[in-house]
Every structure is written in structure tokens, then in C-alpha cells.
Fold this protein.
Amino acid sequence: MCGIVGYVGDSGSTLDVLLGGLSNLEYRGYDSAGVAVGGETLRVEKRAGELETLEAAVGSADRRRFEGPVGLGHTRWSTHGPPTDENAHPHTDEDGRVAVVHNGIVENYRDLRDELEAEGVAFTSETDTEVVPHLIARELRGEADPEAAVRAATERLEGSYALAVVIEGIDALFAARQDSPLVLGVGEGESFVASDVPAFLDHTRDVVYLDDGEFVRLDPGGWTVTDAEGRQVEKPVHTVEWEAEETGKSGYDHYTLKEIHEQPRSLRQCLSGRLDELGGRVTVEELDGIDAPASVQFVACGTSYHAALYGAQLLRDRGTPATAHYAHEYATAPAPIADGDLVIGVTQSGETADTLSALREAAGRGAETLVLTNVVGSTAARECDHAVYIRAGPEIGVAATKTFTSQLVGLNLLAARLAGGDRQRDLVDALRRVPDDVQAVLDESGAASVVEAFADSEAFFFLGRGLGYPVALEGALKFKEITYEHAEGFAAGELKHGPLALVTGETPVFAVVTGDGEAARKTIGNVKEVEARDAPVVVVTDGAAEAGRYADHVLEIPETDPRLAPLLANVQLQLVAYHRAARLDRSIDKPRHLAKSVTVE
Ligand code: M6R
């Protein structure tokens, strides 16, 4: 989704800071980009397409035109109007004195636009955002001071916004936040605003998390945050633990591959201090003081929804009733809530609008809420009653990989802590080993050669049962996201109830078969069904049920606790998707049409 970066400072390199920040926000997904640099004069350049197109446009202009102590940058993910130069941000007023970047949706923009057009204002874009610079300009013409003008304009807006504004002749930047992410970075003689921390991580790790309704003014000498009534708000400065180097590619061809290979480390971080190996129990500090819930409802989207399905089953296996819901469905059709119920949002970003909306719906109806997230200070972390962090570090690839496996581990910790039970020692032992088990999969995976066998296939199916089912769904989602090829995940037993009609000799089937229990035996039965229809079969297996005997190809995983085997199988499926996408030369880190953080409903 749209990315914002804003800068005020004395470095003399405003444009470079902005372009670097935008480059660090590319992972959010975008289709156009722009910058504005202010001071005595205000210069704007914006282009549809990749950041490179903008850099070329700025580079071919006289770069001295872009000198000044204050600036804004934006990557746009289209909502109102197609990706064109005109619709790219920053948007300006008619005189080019006010430049605005925006993330979110101005819901009453049609009324505001009609009002402004009736006054003779000429619009140059189809966006909802363009009303904002015109509203500010009108206030300035009415002789409001710059800060008052920006405040007055934002008061007219309905909907969601993270806004940043520069005005010609003013060495200050104004920003405001309502239901859209915006953070403040505090450096020496410089300060930043951005949609997300990586935008300024090369310059500072000191961060102020802004709340809805807050307004920021950045000056060369410092920053102030005020509330909707203009009263100054004391905000704590947090130091983020992410290192700038964590956001680089470290020699890998893609961030996605780097993040797949980082999983042993990210899982160790997730587990650090949470395993009491002597006592054979898990400890999750963030959950101190929480009672065992009567029942649990998970809300989530996409990959996080697959993690939620897995978490719900873990809890049910321990005797706690639990269900997983798509957050966008739950937000408008919530499940009934009773005393003692806990609603858990699973969201790596903590900013997914659908998930926030579902959590707010649950909280509004009296539920206790908890979020399992990767981002400290994210909106969900701040709004929920409790937050548990998966500590995966920054994930730049749009397709979630390491955050999914950290979610699975986090959900095992949550389930053990919230639902107790007597199987903790086995789990603790297996969790302790899981980073090494993942490393073994990464070291020995045959995924790259398996995908070579299916050069001409155009549809791929993924089967799983029990805890293997969410992993089959996730395997298919990852595959379609980064290869752009048709892939579907199914509960293995469901295939014969309809989808089997799609199975042919040209449709490879990946089956997750772990352990040697009833679920594995039944899944092998389903494998035989597809084999009888000539489908090439790949089993992802620990070998316990000898499923390899019925397969054309085997992707092996180490034997482990049955709750963690699906996690290891998922790593194989990540590699399958990655190698297939690399073979097809896809845009793996930034798949077409997708955004990392989906901040609109
Ligand atoms: O930040 P979240 O975990 O809430 O994001 C939810 C989905 O948008 C996300 O998982 C999406 O499906 C990814 N593209 C998956 O790779």
C-alpha cells in the first residue's frame, strides 16, 4: 500500500534521504512514486511506474532544483484513479505552493471536490487526495497561519489518512494520522515521518509511534506532537531493535529468498527466553495475568488467516473451543461473544485494515482482545488489550515467509500458555530443535529440481489434513502470489467431493503427509486417488508413513513433534514457490497487484 516518507533536517541531502526512504518502502507494493522538496521554493516530481522512473526524471532535471531542508516522498498503490503521472503523489494546490502526500481514503472527497470546484478550483487528478492541498490553500488565502491551515483542512476530512504536508517558504513539515500508519523518526538535527520504520532506519532507530487524531510538526530544531484540540502530547521515544543491515538483501537474489533462509534465526529470536527447558514449560511474559479463555476466536487475512486456522486447531486439540474467521467477514458478520471469550488477531504488520476493523468490532462488543504481531508499536499492538510479538525482524518480500513460520511457533506458545495441558515437555523439546530442523530442510531441499519436472504444467494443487491443511492452503497461496500460476489448496478429504474433476496428468499435486497416524494414512488414500487420475504427485513428508512409495517425487523433512511437522513442510513449499517463480523470472519480491500492508478495507 502507499508509502510515505517525510524529512526535515540540515543534512543538505533531502532528495537522497527521500529517494532512499522510498526505496526502503518499495516492499509495501506501489505503482507510482513522487517527491517534493521545499524551502524557499517548492519542487515536485512524480511518475507512474517504478521508482527508477522517478529517479531518472529527477536525475535528468537540474538536481539543484531539489535542494531544501524539507521534503516529502510517496509510493502510490492506486485506489482512486489509475496509475498515471497526474494521479501520483505529491498533489499540489493550483499555485504549486502546497504539496501533500496521503495514505488512506478520504471518504467524503466527492463532496469536498464539488465544493471546491463550485468555487472555481481546477483539479488535475482523479484522486481523493487532491482535495487536501486545495483545502489548505483556501485556508492560507484566508490568512490562517500554515499550521492552522493544515489543521483546519484535516478537520474537514472523513475516512482514513496518514498525511504529510510541505508549504513553500516554510521550513517545516506537518503530518497527521487517522486510521492509517504513521511513525516519527528522531535523529540528530533531523527528523522523519514515514508509514513504516525501514524508511528511515538508515538514519535513526529512535521512533515515536503516533496515535489516531495526533498532529505532528517537524522543524529543523525538533518536533512536537499535539492532539486534535492542539494540546501538546508527551510521546515516549522507543529504540527499535532492527538493524539497518537486516533490511538489505545480504547477497541473495531476492529478499524473499533471503527471508526464507533467515528462518532458523527468526525462529530462535521468537523462542528466545520463552522455553523453560528445565521445567518443560513455555513462558510468555506478555501473557502474564491472562486467564485461560473460555473460547477463542481468531481473526486474520491471507497468510495470517492460515496461521489462525492452525492456531485454532492447536487450541481445540488442547480442549479449548476455538474458531478462525476471515477478518473482513468478521467485521460485518461477527460471531457471538460470551463472557471469558478472547478474540485474537493474527497480523504480521499489525496494520491490516480488515483485521483492525474485526478487532475493533470485537472490542466494541466487550471481548478481551490480543494480537499476535511482528511489529512493536503497530496499531493493533497499541489498540488490543494484549500483544504478543513474533520477533521475526523486518520482512521486505511482499509474500510472507518467515513471519508465517514465526506465527506458527508463536501460536504453539500461545496455545500451551493459554490452554495448558500436559504435553508441554515434548513441545518444548521440539521447539528448541525447530531452528535446526528448518536449517536441515534449507540445506537439503530438492525443491529446485522438483519444479524443473513440471515445466509445462499450468495448474498445481496442494493437499493437507489436520494441521497440514492450513499449510496446504499457504503453499498454494505462496505459489500463486509469486508465480502468477493457478494453484489451489484443499483439505485432502474434500478432493473427491468435487475438485477431483480438475485433476489430470498435467496437474501436479503436492501432498503434506506427516507422522504415521490416521490422518497420514487417510491422506495417502487421497494421494492414491489423484495418482489414479495420472496426476504427478509430490509428497512432503517425514517418511513415517512411507508416503514416498506412492509419489513421483519426495521432499523430505526431519521427524519432529506432530504439531511442528507442518511448519517444516511449509518451508519446502516456500522453496517450491520460490524456485518456480525464479524459473519464470517473476517479480518475486513485489508481485504484481499486491501490497505488503493492506491498509484499506
Ligand atoms: O500484515 P498481515 O499479516 O495482517 O497481512 C495479511 C495479508 O494481507 C498477508 O498475509 C498477505 O496475504 C500476504 N501477501 C501473504 O503473503
User: Anything to note?
Assistant: Residues 301-304, 347-349, 352, 355, 398-400, 481, 594, 597-598 surround 5-amino-5-deoxy-1-O-phosphono-D-mannitol (CB under 6 Å). Residues 424-444 form the longest helix (21 residues). The chain has three domains: 3-246, 248-443, 445-596. The chain has a mean pLDDT of 92.
